Amino acid sequence: MRGPNTKAFQQGFLKNMIFSLQACSEFCISSSASGGAAMMSLQQRKCAIKSSANIAMATARGGRARWPQAVLASSSSPSRRPSKPSSSPGKKKKNTHVCKKIVRRCLHTRRRWRAGTGASSLARTTSTTTAMIGSREIARRLVRKRTKVLRKMIPGGELLDEISLLHEAVDYVAHLHAQVDVLRRISNAVQRG
Q: Which of 46, 94, 151, 185 is the most buried (most CB within 10 A)?
């Protein structure tokens, strides 16, 4: 297993990136020879660079992590690629509204408890216990929602338990950071030369 910050990973990533980009350009040339368009559109270039970078990162990573296997599996057959969810502004507003409701409800419960200074200590203990149970349930819901989102973000995350998912997420993010670093270096070198 090569770490994302090692020179071996970065060299392997760069080598695999070049091979993958060459394969994309050869595919474009062969499709133009068979009657296709001679040049790739800007959108096709962006897609080719992104998929080449993902494939290069996954092959350079290797090892026993699941996300490289999921990236390579999704890139090998277009029918297995997950479709990107459409981001509708209505859904975002709804989620924001629900979160605001949860926060208001939590704050309202605390204010009621503070306002009840004349109540007996038993009533305070009961309301404190109820507020703690409510806040625990809110925290559990938030953790479940965030775990669900994380499962969608990490390739192959749908099949993992929570602890493995967190390990994969840390590994994936570290390798994404290394990928950005190498691509930034490539961009700087191209701009200079």
A: 151
